[in-house]
Design brief:
The protein is of the alpha+beta class. The chain contains 20 helices and 34 strands. The chain has 4 domains: 72 residues, Beta-grasp domain (Ubiquitin-like (UB roll)); 153 residues, Threonyl-tRNA Synthetase, Chain A, domain 2 (2-Layer Sandwich), CATH 3.30.980; 245 residues, BirA Bifunctional Protein, domain 2; 90 residues, Rossmann fold, CATH 3.40.50.800.
Length: 656
């Protein structure tokens, strides 16, 4: 929304018409600041405020409101308020580094999820020993309660201010100058002689930063481009209170224990051999079994929802990607082409959709054939920059549980509702029960298709979300140029939010590939296309699962579901017979026939996070019993073997 700025010929003493969130319109004197309005509502609200919004635009508390509009107070405990705190803390970090390191230059310092960072060039890497003095200097700046003062400069004035800081001048000179202004005017913030280039807003003064902590340093390329200079990045976090900071640091400790890369090594699930290149995993037997259970589940539930399985190759002629538009919009993430068959160029696929389109085109289609639902566990390859590759969560080779539905316009609402039902069922089966969604709508400028089709598709997505009861936010204008979409997010066991499944409308590929079906009136019409990846990617989904469960998977997913531990060598034959009886019932079981002591074997089974442990000794051999320990419960001695196996076989069944 655009702010209703006052024209110069309007009377300066004309009161502002400020609309509160409840719809009440209140007059305030011209020149009133955001803090003035917040204070008039309530002193507690004013104390918690860090910024305000007027018709959706974020403004500093001290900035006079530029016109009439919808007014909102941004408090320090809200997501937007925490972002303001963190952005302000990033400026204090930059000020501290420049105070301590003569000749240092600084680049960018945004707020990010749960924290902030700033990139610097100090002529050498930061070390852990650098962070303490920097944090002390930040504490001194915060204690001084220095005010953040906003100024607007011409482009040339901005270049003069930052003449000794190449990264700042590059921002001003580039087309991305809109990050800090409109290209002609740039905004800066000063506090106690320090000046930074920034759009804002910021807290009124450094003293509003109550809980700031530096976390680590790392290398980072300027603008994320490995062909640009490597800078040194310092990460930190900032919260509205010491208690909130303490809770966050505890979550970080827990997250470190749950890191899927660490657990992947400890549980022998997968590895990333350097000889293969960055971002390419190989799956070990334990990981292979885990992955098989997940992929088998995917196939079962896709079949249950009426999808047909298809398969496609890993590469195709570049012409296919030209037609689909990927070469125009996606070439940087595609691996370079190779010439084959004389002059034909081939590309490794970054996605599966053009192949499914080809399957649709392979025959004449009637309205009687629709909906057509194609599903594939298709491996794709994308060139992610080395700085963003992160274990299974951001890999260069990964498998999507990709589906594409082709339907009539009339079938679209029902198909979208079915997809959302599918997604929520799948996520619940894997142990997630807290959902949120983003509904991304038509971009304001670049989009394809018919306006009424966009509106109908968006309304259908909204109706599906409302029927599901999943809380959602409307991300205005954030849809892809080819259609609106739903992104489903989950919260894991320690409260982190993960984007998982996507349901995406597509109005461009049916046009680009000239897809048609015959209507009941014997006319030709374009089908509607729906993309959906329920896991997103199998690799990323497994990475999230590992961290959600801390590697202690539910029985049906565990690579090894039970282990039989003989008390002594003389019990090994009986342990093997017990294991065979369990395998006959479909239980994945190992026997620990090693030479260690019983206590060591049990500890090892716990370290392997095996859900069930069976101990067999002399009395168990003679009585056909076992000592049974199932994760989360105490050991039960003398459990009849048949009863124990039946119990585990039931627990080991996959959902659906």
């Amino acid at each position: 929304m655009r702010l209703a700025y006052r024209h110069q010929d309007e009377s300066e003493d004309m009161p502002l018409q400020i609309t509160y969130p409840d719809g009440t319109v209140v007059e305030h004197p011209d020149g009133s600041t955001g803090l003035d309005v917040a204070s008039s509502i309530g002193s507690r609200l004013a104390r918690a405020a860090v910024a305000v919004k007027l018709d959706g635009e974020m403004l500093d508390l001290s900035r006079p409101l530029p016109g009439d509009g919808l007014f909102e107070v941004v408090t320090d405990s809200s997501d937007e308020g925490r972002s303001v705190l963190r952005h302000s803390a990033a400026h204090v970090l930059a000020q501290a580094v420049l105070n301590l390191h003569q000749g240092a230059t600084f680049a960018i310092g945004p707020s990010i999820t749960d924290g902030f960072y700033y990139d610097f060039d100090i002529g050498r890497p930061f070390t852990p020993d650098d962070l303490g003095p920097i944090e002390e200097e930040m504490a001194r700046i915060i204690a001084a309660d220095q005010p953040f003062i906003r100024e607007e400069l011409s482009r040339q004035e901005g270049l003069a201010v930052f003449a000794e800081h190449r990264f700042k001048t590059e921002i001003i000179e580039s087309v991305e100058g809109s990050e800090v202004g409109d290209g002609k005017i740039v905004s800066i913030y000063r506090n106690n002689g320090f000046v930074d280039l920034c759009r804002g807003p910021h807290v009124p003064s450094t003293g509003r930063l109550k809980a700031v902590k530096l976390l680590r340093s790392a290398g980072a390329y300027w603008r994320g481009d490995e062909n640009q200079p490597q800078l040194q990045r310092i990460y930190g976090t900032a919260w509205e209170s010491a208690k909130a900071l303490e809770e966050h640091l505890h979550r970080l400790e827990e997250a470190e224990k749950r890191d899927h890369r660490k657990l992947g090594r400890e549980l022998d699930l997968f590895s990333f051999p350097s000889e293969l290149g960055s971002g390419l995993a190989v799956w070990h037997p334990n990981g292979g079994m885990l992955r098989k259970q997940i992929e088998d589940y995917s196939r079962r539930i896709h079949e249950m929802f009426g999808f047909d399985f298809v398969y496609s190759p890993h590469l195709a002629k570049a012409d296919v990607w030209q037609t689909s538009g990927h070469l125009d919009f996606y070439a940087d993430l595609m691996y370079p082409g190779m010439e084959m068959d004389g002059s034909d160029e081939y590309r490794v696929k970054p996605m599966n959709c053009p192949f499914h389109v080809m399957i649709y085109k392979s025959a004449a289609r009637s309205y009687r054939d629709l909906p057509l639902r194609f599903g594939e566990l298709g491996t794709v390859y994308r060139y992610e920059m080395s700085g963003v590759v992160h274990g299974l969560l951001r890999a260069r080779g990964f498998t999507q549980d990709d589906s594409h539905t082709f339907c009539t316009r009339e079938q679209m609402p029902e198909e979208l509702a079915m997809h959302l039902e599918f997604v929520l069922m799948l996520l619940r089966d894997f142990g997630f029960d807290e959902f949120e969604a983003d509904l991304s709508t038509r971009p304001e400028e670049k989009w394809v298709g018919e306006l009424d089709m966009w509106e109908e598709a968006t309304d259908s997505l909204k109706a599906a979300l409302e029927a599901s009861g999943v809380p959602y936010r409307v991300a205005e204008g954030e849809g892809a140029f080819y259609g609106p979409k739903i992104d489903v997010h989950v919260k894991d066991a320690i409260g982190r939010r993960w984007q998982m499944s996507t349901i995406q409308m597509d109005f461009t590929l049916p046009d680009r590939f000239e897809l048609e079906f015959i209507t009941p009136e014997d006319a030709r019409e374009r089908p509607v296309m729906i993309h959906s990846a329920k896991f997103g990617s199998v690799e990323r989904f497994i990475g999230v699962l590992i961290e959600h469960y801390a590697g202690a998977f539910p029985m049906w997913l565990a690579p090894v579901q039970a282990i039989v531990v003989p008390v002594a060598d003389r019990h090994e034959d009986h342990a093997s017979k017990v294991a065979k009886s369990m395998r006959d019932r479909g239980i994945r079981v190992d026997v620990d026939a090693g030479s260690g002591k019983l206590g060591e074997k049990i500890r090892n089974a716990h370290l392997r996070k095996i859900p069930a442990i069976m101990v067999v000794g002399d009395s168990d051999v003679s009585n056909e019993t076992v000592g049974l320990t199932v994760r989360g419960s105490d050991e039960r001695r003398g459990t009849p073997l048949g009863e124990a196996i039946t119990e585990l076989a039931e627990a080991a069944k996959p959902p659906r």
